[in-house]
Each structure stands twice: as structure tokens, then as C-alpha cells.
Amino acid sequence: MKSVPPVPKPDHVPEALVVDFDFIELPGAEDDIQAGYQAYQRGCPDIFWTPQNGGHWVATRAEDIVFMQRNTDVFSNRMVTLPPFPEGTPPSIPLEIDPPRHAQYRRPLMQFLTPGAVKHLEDGVRKVAIDQIEALLPQGGCEFIEDFAKVLPIHVFLDAVDLPREDASMLLPIAEKSVRARSIEDRIEAHREMSGYLLGWVRKRRAEPGDDLLSQIVTIDVDGEMISEDEALSYATLVLFGGLDTVAGMIGLIGKFLAEHPDKCKELVENLDDAKFLKNAIEELIRRHGIANTARVLTQDYDYKGVHFKKGDHILPPNLLAGVDDRVIDDPLTVDFNRKKPVHASFGNGAHACPGAGLARREIAVFLEEWLRRIPEFRVKPGTKPVLETGQVNGIIKLELVWP
């Protein structure tokens, strides 16, 4: 059942550009999310309008997606969710703040997640991965999402913000509800629940800051003054959601791919010690398995490639479609670890490019290195089927694996 009924077509939208596209209930995505999206990319106008999820435009080609991600003057981040939250909802900081002000909020994230800092975090990432894999190995199988894909990033992230690891089991369902709930009300409730959990921690770190990431983001100065408690809470909530869910989704989809493609898994196993090969292979896996969907809102009337946008229009430029665009990538649904340049927009572009991209790549690398050295052969458990789900963050919610 849809939580939001289709809306009427606005007068400025030509009938020829209307497509019934619902990114929450996408045909074909139950088997392959990216292929389900690509069917619309190949069979529809490059830019079309859908009456679903509040009514919004969709950009399907890499050139347009990258342009819109970079051009924040016209395609604003002020409302990134679909259906949009009610008018007057405070912005999620810093995601829904546009440049140049955005840079002041983003600064502590960039400082904490520099390449050097990410390298410093690697030992913790690796220890969590090894401990979890060693515990699973003798069982001969696991439910990969709950038993590994979610465990690695949440433990690493809770360590980075210096919050108790034992809170992971309580926080993960809230993060799931935030990005995959079908109703606006449920998504708002998830934000309230996360804010309720964080409020005490935010107040404590603002009073007695440490050197952890949470302390840094809740005490930043903007325009010469420390941000308000409400802003700090919004910032902390968004960062915690980002750290809990997105990396887990990508690791889950990569695990599914390797379980279903033993030849590719074997190729990785044979090249784990080749740093250059592994780096390119990870980029190719990220290209093929993009997951995030952040919408934009038009700041003005704007004509683009024959399409007339009106101020206030919402548009979805799905990150993952840039990685499966056959105009820029040959045979894009095929994973080729020797592809010379895996082009994608999985972490966004421009001012709002994901500041945690380096950490995400490192977590994926550690997963592949430590898992494949211990479990080089694995497959989907016979009689089961992976459960995939689309939404603001696409992902996989169940994946039963077995190994010898």
C-alpha cells in the first residue's frame, strides 16, 4: 500500500515526459536494484516527471546527474527526501545546507575523515572484521547482513563518535526506519527517536568536548558563534544515520554479488595482495552497486536541455544511475575488475560529495581482504533468496550465506 497517493501533473510538465516511476516500489529491483533502475534509464526520456512520492522529476543520465549534483545554485539540497518532509521542517545539517554556508558546517567532518585519519582508524576496522569473521567461520553459514555487513560499520562508527558499542542493536532498527520507511510519519518518528537517544550525549559533549567526532561536530563555530543545541542535535542525528546504514548496504550488495558470481570471487581471492588491482576492483564494485538517493529542489525557474523546471520542483538525480549509464560505460551491468576507469557518482559530486567516502572504501577493502582470506568460497544458501529493498538508501535486508 502506498503511503502517498499519486499527484496530478502540473501544467508545465508535458504529457510526453510523464512516467509512472516509484523508487520505493521499483519493478525488477527484487532481483537487481541497479538493473531495475537502468530499465527506466534505457526506456524513458533522459529527464522525466513522475506523479509518485509527491510528484518529482528524475534525471537518468550521468552527465545530467553530475551537473545537478554540482550546481547547487539551481538544484538546491534544501530538501533531499522524497516525499518531502512537511514545509517548515528544520533542515538536516549539513546535508540540507547549501554553499557557501555549508562549508562551515562540513569542516569538522572533512578534518576528521582525512586520508591520514582514515588510515589511523583502519586498525579498529580490521580488528572488528577479523573478530566477527572468526566467530562466524566455524558455523558454515550466516545471515550476512545482521551478522557482518551491519556489524562492521556500526562498531567502527560508534568508536569514532565515542558512543557505547552495546547501543548498536538499539540504533540499527531506527536507522533502517529512517531510510526505508514507506511513510513520512515513520521517517519523522525515526528522526525523533535518534534525536532522543543523542540529546544527552550532545549536551555532555558540548559541556565537556573530547577529541572524538561527535564532540567536534556539536561544538563547531559558524559565523563566529557555536551552533545551537538544536543544530548540533540535527547534525549529530544525520551523521549517525549516515554512519550506520550506507556502508552496510554497499557491503551487503557486494557480498551478494560475490556469492552469486564465484568466478569473480575467485579472481579477487587470487589478487588480494595486488594493491593496485584491489583498489580498481573496489571502485568497480562501488560503481556497480551504488545505493544512495538524495533529491534536489529547484531554486528558480530553469530551462535545461529542453525541459522547463519551475521553482520549487523536486528532482531525483539517482547516484547509482551514473554508474550504469551505457553512454559513458561499456556493458555497465557487467563487473570487470580490469576496467580502466570505473566512472560513477556513488558518493556524489561537488560541495555535497560524501565526506566519508574514504572511510567507506577502507571498510570495503578490509571486508574483502579479511573475509576472502578466511572464506574464499561462499554462496547463497540453497532454498533462500536475498531480500532487496529500494528507497532513499537502496540496500539488502536479508542474505543467507553458506560455505564449506
From TrEMBL:
It comes from the Bacteria. Keywords: Heme, Iron, Metal-binding, Monooxygenase, Oxidoreductase. InterPro entries: Cyt_P450 (IPR001128), Cyt_P450_B (IPR002397), Cyt_P450_CS (IPR017972), Cyt_P450_sf (IPR036396). Pfam families: p450. The keyword RNA-binding does not apply. One of its GO terms (molecular function) is iron ion binding. This is Cytochrome P450. It comes from Novosphingobium malaysiense.
